[in-house]
From TrEMBL:
Lineage per the UniProt record: Bacteria, Pseudomonadati, Bacteroidota, Sphingobacteriia, Sphingobacteriales
Protein family (similarity comment): Belongs to the MurCDEF family.
Protein name: UDP-N-acetylmuramoylalanine--D-glutamate ligase
Enzyme Commission number, as recorded: 6.3.2.9
Keyword ATP-binding: yes
């Protein structure tokens, strides 16, 4: 059975796709395949390779504008998660009671595959990729989509996977209503993107908990028992799904926990126990123990053999831009953590590095509260090099906690400053805590420019 009743949304008529990125173009191709009259509209300029795809499929599109009178004639709208709810066009659509949904919601109507859905403020890309690689290694016919990989809708149109691992953001969840996850995972919740949630953390928590809506007693809900915001959300949101918590602070009957001798124990009903030493994991740091626990629970639910799980968990190589080892030059280690776009991600990064650190911070501040970094900065950070246009908040936050805070004029300048400030045995860590859009196209562009500047030293 598909994950959404195929009668809930219009199954024909005019479908408008807002945004012509990976998810938008994939949606348009699937919608045309299903018989919709499709039109794609993007307020920006559409990348040339997406135009080629749309032209090949003979799908009409516009760029640099939204023709409102045409869009408001839609029977169904699928919008990019980057377009906020308070955008005037979205408000106008909802005023006319035209359904506005996410790509994931739209595509889920057309597949019977098992859907493993992973969200969280931090670690979701690592956990999603680890889970995908683990299932693939075990011989599962598995697809990777959501915030990562190829468009979910495009894969539904052209592939026949038995299971999908989907990285889901809160922005996607905001436009998901009837969708049901077979396995829903909430890794953690820390204040992030509060500009999209009226600067109220409880609104952001509620968005994350949309992950468990519509789940049944045959489904699974995997979550971190040690995370205070998740605990708060559990009091407001309920699901009939089987709860499988993971924790490093207590013992649980069903779920995953850490023993006093640092063994990960994973137990689910009607399955043999999984045990693995944390020192055997390929990914280091406390946060990665959590990520491995979550992936391990998914694997057990999917009936993977313990040996296959251990092989994947001991050999997995982390994704680009997330604590990515770049080079060791003159005895100084350079790490690219450009994907760390919030304060909690930076906390994890600082926690995982054992040497003195020259920290590269800054960019588009999303209302960050840097208080949680204070002790780690005091104890570990030799100097901070600021990147981005406006770094007044970073100076104000850390002027009493580190000896030196300097501004830079470009990524190349920032890397050169960091290399001069670092001493032999130190780590230069790019972990910005901010969005990248002032100096860069995205966090990947920021990370790539960091790596290029390091290799020029």
């Amino acid at each position: 059975m598909a994950n959404i009743s195929s009668t809930y949304y219009p199954q024909s008529g005019k479908l408008i796709v807002l945004g012509a990125g990976e998810s938008g173009v994939g949606t348009a191709i699937l919608a045309k395949q299903k018989g919709f009259d499709v039109f794609v509209s993007d307020m920006g300029m559409i990348a040339s390779h997406y135009k080629v795809q749309l032209d090949e499929e003979q799908i009409a599109y516009e760029e640099g504008t939204h023709t409102e009178e045409r869009i408001l004639l839609a029977d169904l709208v699928v919008k990019s998660p980057g377009i906020p709810e308070h955008a005037p066009l979205v408000i106008a659509l909802k005023a006319k009671h035209i359904p506005v949904i996410a790509e994931i919601e739209f595509a889920a109507q057309y597949t019977d595959a098992k859907l493993i859905c992973i969200t969280g403020s931090n670690g979701k890309s690592t956990t999603t990729m680890l889970t995908y690689e683990m299932l693939k290694h075990a011989g599962k016919h598995v697809g990777l989509a959501g915030n990562i990989g190829k468009s979910f809708a495009l894969q539904v149109a052209r592939e026949q996977f038995d299971v999908y691992v989907l990285e889901i953001s809160s922005f996607m969840l905001d436009d998901m209503f009837q969708f049901r996850a077979d396995i829903a995972v909430i890794l953690n919740i820390t204040a992030d993107h509060l500009d999209r949630y009226d600067y109220k953390v409880e609104n952001y928590v509620d968005s994350k908990f949309r992950m468990i809506q519509n789940q049944t007693k045959d489904d699974y809900f995997i979550y971190c028992l040690d995370d205070p915001q998740t605990a708060a959300g559990l009091k407001r949101h309920h699901t009939a799904a089987m709860h499988l918590p993971f924790t490093q602070e207590q013992k649980v009957e069903f779920g995953a926990y850490l023993t006093s001798i640092k063994d990960i124990i994973i137990n689910i009903p009607n399955s043999d126990t999984f045990t693995m030493r944390t020192e055997e994991l390929s990914l280091t740091g406390k946060h990665n123990v959590y990520n491995n626990m979550a992936s391990g629970l998914i694997a057990k639910v999917q009936e993977l053999r313990n040996q296959a799980m251990k092989e994947s968990m001991s050999s997995y190589v982390n994704i680009a831009h997330r604590l990515e080892q770049v080079a060791c030059i003159g005895g100084v280690n350079y790490i690219n953590d450009s994907k760390a776009t919030n304060v909690n991600s930076v906390w994890y990064a600082l926690e995982s590095v054992s040497t003195p650190i020259v920290l590269m911070l800054g960019g588009v501040d999303k209302g960050n509260d840097y208080e949680m970094l204070r002790d780690l900065v005091k104890n570990k950070v030799r100097a901070i090099v600021c990147i981005g246009k406006d770094n007044t908040a970073i100076h104000a936050a850390f002027e009493d906690d580190t000896e030196l805070i300097v501004n830079s004029s470009s990524m190349k300048d920032a890397v050169q400053l960091a290399s001069h400030l670092a001493q032999k045995g130190d780590t230069v860590l790019l972990s910005p805590a901010c969005a990248s859009f002032d100096w860069f196209k995205n966090y990947e562009d920021r990370g790539d420019k960091f790596k290029a500047a390091v290799m020029e030293l």
